[in-house]
Write a structure and sequence with these properties.
CATH class of the largest domain: Alpha Beta
Structural class: alpha/beta
Shape: globular
Helix content: 40-55%
Radius of gyration: 20 Å
CATH topology of the largest domain: Rossmann fold
Strand content: 5-15%
Largest sheet: 7 strands, mixed
Number of helices: 13
CATH superfamily of the largest domain: Vaccinia Virus protein VP39
Distance between the termini: 36 Å
Strand order of the largest sheet: 3-2-1-4-5-7-6
């Protein structure tokens, strides 16, 4: 099989390959199959009796993964579903237990560049943020329809933004004159509310946009659903690996692994999260905030 060009560089791929050794007949769940990078890495080690079940709410990602993974010798099942439904989807495929569950919780560059997604403040886009277009509520709905206190609480809870009350006040004041419908409008409002923050390495709107994306897609709720289901889905000695990109996700993973270790269901492999090397960050900026945690089923 020739090398396949993958637009999305899989984060911490080398470390994952070192930490997780799968037998040729392994059954693997890639809970966020995305562009197929991680599945390709592991799928190359699987034989015809191996199985990859890839889930993603983004229909474009599923199509791209289909193209990337089509040459693998193992069986590949790609589903346009949320990973919170992993248990139900496995049952639907007649699969009871798996050897490995992987979830890379990052947003890829293709999604950030997709105007229909409306995720980025780098370009002016419709304020949408739905990774799954079957969802009803957009970021614009939340921004224009949520009262000031609830909006401030949301930005603080999911964005860990200390200026959340001031940002909410600016938003509510602006929307009283005209609705906020684009990412550019929102980014400009946040910049006005908090200033350019010359000392900060990140754009002033980063945390607010993160908060809205989490709220629109119920990211913390869905992650908790996967973490709760995982012990019942893993074979003995099977592993779960989660790559998170902000402290809210990482806390959920850390606490879940610790809880199940205390119950005797997990052995935590990564006592501290594994982070990318300087070299990987230099080659792939998207990796800079990644944290990998791994646990093994007992």
């Amino acid at each position: 099989m020739g090398d396949l060009v993958i637009e999305h560089i899989p984060v911490l791929a080398k470390v994952l390959a070192e930490q997780v050794k799968l037998p040729q007949d392994a059954v693997m769940v890639d809970a966020t199959v995305g562009q197929g990078g991680h599945s390709l890495l592991f799928g190359r080690k699987l034989g015809p009796e191996g199985v990859i079940i890839g889930l993603d709410v983004d229909t474009n990602a599923v199509r791209r993964a289909q193209s990337v993974l089509k040459a693998l010798s193992c069986k590949v099942i790609l589903l346009n579903e949320n990973f919170s439904q992993t248990a139900e989807q496995l049952t639907g495929q007649g699969i009871e237990k798996v050897d490995f569950i992987l979830a890379d919780l990052g947003v890829c560059s293709a999604q950030l560049d997709d105007v229909e997604m409306g995720l980025s403040f780098q370009r002016n886009m419709p304020l949408d943020m739905r990774m799954d277009k079957r969802l009803q509520t957009t970021a614009a709905d939340i921004i224009n329809g949520t009262d000031e206190k609830a909006l401030a609480d949301l930005i603080y809870q999911f964005g860990e933004e200390r200026a959340s009350r001031r940002i909410a006040r600016f938003i509510v004041e602006h929307r009283s004159r005209e609705p906020i419908t684009t990412t550019g409008q929102l980014a400009m409002l946040v910049c006005r509310a908090v200033g350019r923050r010359q000392w900060s390495r990140i754009h002033p709107a980063t945390k607010t946009f993160q908060a809205l994306r989490i709220a629109v897609n119920n990211e913390t709720g869905n992650l908790q659903g996967l973490l709760d289901a995982a012990p019942g889905l893993l074979k003995k000695d099977g592993r779960i690996a989660v790559i998170s990109f902000h402290s809210i996700e990482d806390r959920l993973v850390k606490n879940s692994f610790k809880q199940y270790e205390q119950k005797g269901l997990y052995r935590i492999i990564t006592k501290k999260p594994i982070v990318p090397s300087r070299r990987e960050v230099a080659e792939n900026r998207r990796a800079r905030s990644a944290k990998l945690r791994i646990a093994q089923r007992q």
